[in-house]
Amino acid sequence: MVRNAGIVIVTVIIIAILTDAMITILARPQLGRKACNAANIPYKTVIAHRGASYWAPEESYYAYMIAKEVGAEYLEMDVQRTKDDVLIAFHDDTLMRITNVSSVFPGRENDPIKSFTIAELKKLDLGKWFNNTYPDRSKKSYNETKILTLDEVIDIAKADGTIYPLYIETKSPDNYPGIEQELVAILATRGYITANTNTNHPYAPVIFQSFEIKSLMLLSQLAPGVPRVYLIDEDMVNDKGWDVIIEEAKKAGCAGLGPSGYLGWPWLIGKAHRNGLCVHIYTVDRKWQFRLLHWFGADGFFTNRCELLMDYYDKAHKKSFKDVIVSIK
Ligand code: G3P
Ligand code: CA
Asked: Could you give the CA distance from residue 61 to residue 51 in angstroms, rounded to a whole number?
């Protein structure tokens, strides 16, 4: 009996060691670290997806303020453009899901973002949806939270005079011809892109990301010094295959790939690593997922819970997360 138990334990240990070795060989995490270093991106990257969006309305002042105070490495945002040519931070194609558009502009619920002026968007509220949907995380201060312009996100990022890093997605760029030029122009004006790329920041102060390789190509011409990450979903892999995606990314001079969590397999990540690409996975909010996907080779995560990822990576919070949350009334 004891002998049999011993055999089982030894077998399990051997299998675990072999599995770990196999995953390490497949995923090549040391090459992921090298790819991050080459692009001036911190290895084990903490990307606050739409800000600390588990805790506050996504892409709002509070979501970015929390992520910044806690110390996430990057504030993530989706850039789109209003009818009157203002770049804004907003994820969806329409306003229906997270704003009170149906009461402010009845009949326009499903109209595209680009059909609204900035003055119209500023009449909308992001807080009511959040407070109603997540009563346990609701805050009085979130009422009347407004959609932000890119410049306002930068104001938050630069509030203490430093350049707080941004990870910016051109969202549905085909809808917004010329948005790459406008984005680069604003970032240059605001000090995020400089001629000598020296912003006195220890790592890349801005990263571009897109599901559209054409947009990344354009950005590579407009701002060659800014690292680019090619976002990937399952449909893209089914359509083109992983090898084509890697080739596209390399052709556009990308620093990395941003696959969905469902694509976080060690052999896929390893192939990206062997091609000099780092891998940031979206959108991951649970500790067991961080652990598993890190084991599978991920170099960083887009997360709505930057405080949890920082804990997992053993990175100290700049300010106590609890204090930051409690300070919001
Ligand atoms: O940008 C990374 C990740 O955010 C992509 O997904 O839909 O949240 O923009 P989405
Ligand atoms: Ca995004």
From this structure: 9
Q: Rounded CA gap, 286 and 47, in Å?
A: 14
pTM over 0.85, yes/no: yes
**Does the beta carbon of 91 lie inside 6 Å of ligand 1?**
yes
136-145, pLDDT tens digit by residue? 999 999 998 9
Q: Which atom of ligand 1 is nearest to the CA of 78?
A: 9
Atom of ligand 1 nearest to the CA of 47: 2
**Which pLDDT value is given to residue 2?**
72
CA distance 219 to 235: 24
Ligand 1 within 6 A of CB of 51: no
Q: Are strands 206-210 and 166-170 parallel, antiparallel or unpaired?
A: parallel
What string of H, E and C letters represents the secondary structure of the chain?
Answer: CHHHHHHHHHHHHHHHHHHHHHHHHHHCHHHHHHHHHHCCCCCCEEEECCCCCCCCCCCCHHHHHHHHHHCCCEEEEEEEECCCCCEEECCCCCCCCCCCHHHHCCCCCCCCHHHCCHHHHCCCCCHHHHHHHCHHHCCHHHCCCCCEEHHHHHHHHCCCCCCCCEEEEECCHHHCCCHHHHHHHHHHHCCCCCCCCCCCCCCCCEEEEECCHHHHHHHHHHCCCCCEEEEECHHHHHHHCHHHHHHHHHHCCCCEEEEEHHHCCHHHHHHHHHCCCEEEEECCCCHHHHHHHHHCCCCEEEECCHHHHHHHCCCCCCCCHHHHHHHCC
Local confidence band at 25 (pLDDT 50, 70, 90 cut-offs): confident
Distance, CA 281 to ligand 2 centroid (Å)?
Answer: 11
What residues pair up with 47 in beta bridges, in sequence order? 74, 302
CA distance 78 to 80: 7
169 lines ligand 1 (CB under 6 A): yes
- The residues placing their C-beta within 5 Å of ligand 2, an ion, are 78, 169
